[in-house]
C-alpha cells in the first residue's frame, strides 16, 4: 500500500465522518443558539435548560437523517471491502 493511497483513504474516512456528524452538530448548534438567546432575553440562567432541547434536537436529527447517514456509511464500508484486494497486492 503506497503512501498516497493511505492518505487518500484517510481523507475519505474524515470526509465521511464530517458528512455523517454534520446534521446533528448543526441542529445542536442551532438549538443551543436559540436557547441562549431565550436565556439572555428572559434572564433565566439555569445551566441545565440548554441540555434537554439539544438532546431532543440531536435525536430528531438522527431520526430524520438516519437513513441517509446509514447509506453513506454502508457505501463507504462497501467501497473499503471491495478495494481491499487491490490494496494488498
Search tags:
89 residues, mainly alpha, 88% helix, 0% strand
Structure description:
It is a single chain. With 89 residues, the chain is mainly alpha-helical. The protein has one domain (3-88). 88% of the residues lie in helices and 0% in strands. The chain has 2 helices and no strands. Helix 1 runs antiparallel to helix 2 (51-88). The mean pLDDT is 91.
Summary, kept brief:
The protein has 89 residues and is mainly α. The protein has 2 helices and no strands. Helix 1 (3-42) runs antiparallel to helix 2.
Which shape, going by the Cα principal axes? elongated
Radius of gyration of CA atoms, rounded to a whole number: 19 Å
Taken in chain order, the helices and strands follow as HH
Report the sheet with the most strands, covering strand number, pairing sense and barrel closure.
none
Terminus-to-terminus distance:
8 Å
Runs with pLDDT <50, length 5+?
none
Strand content: under 5%
Secondary structure tally: strands:
0
Number of helices: 2
Roughly how much helix do the residues carry, as a percent range? over 70%
Amino acid at each position: 500500500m503506497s503512501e498516497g493511497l493511505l492518505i487518500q483513504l484517510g481523507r475519505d474516512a474524515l470526509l465521511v465522518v464530517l458528512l455523517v456528524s454534520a446534521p446533528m452538530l448543526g441542529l445542536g448548534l442551532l438549538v443551543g443558539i436559540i436557547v441562549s438567546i431565550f436565556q439572555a432575553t428572559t434572564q433565566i440562567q439555569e445551566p441545565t435548560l440548554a441540555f434537554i432541547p439539544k438532546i431532543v434536537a440531536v435525536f430528531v436529527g438522527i431520526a430524520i437523517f438516519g437513513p441517509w447517514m446509514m447509506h453513506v456509511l454502508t457505501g463507504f464500508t462497501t467501497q473499503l471491502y471491495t478495494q481491499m484486494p487491490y490494496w494488498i497486492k
